[in-house]
Amino acid sequence: MNTRPSTDLETFSNPNPERDYTIRIDTPEFTCLCPKTGQPDFATLSLEYVPEASCIELKSFKLYTWSYRDKGAFHEAVSNQILADLVAACEPRFMRLTAEFNVRGGVYTTVVVEHKADNWQASTPIQLP
Hints:
The protein is α+β, with helices and mostly antiparallel strands. The chain has a single domain, classed as GTP Cyclohydrolase I, domain 2. It is 19% helix and 38% strand. The protein contains two helices and six strands. The radius of gyration is 16 Å and the shape is globular.
């Protein structure tokens, strides 16, 4: 059992690649360091994606996010890097990462970053009565 942070993101085959469906992962315990002060920054990461051929394995995702605990990074940079790494790992049809950082000096920060595959079109939402 791995009990250390890791930058390796594992995937597994999408069990239903013929269908668009959304996977949502919430991580309320993300931490990194402020690059100016070295103090910890805390955030909730909300990941939503429509997989193509592969899905992100959850344990590797947990260990991957843990790897940021001792890294200094601006909120915007760390959010974009996480999205880039996840997209590189599983090449989804669509992916959105919302990073809601806790208050620091009276300021809350939320960063939303997205990826959309060139050949993918979102289906029209269905409104039920």
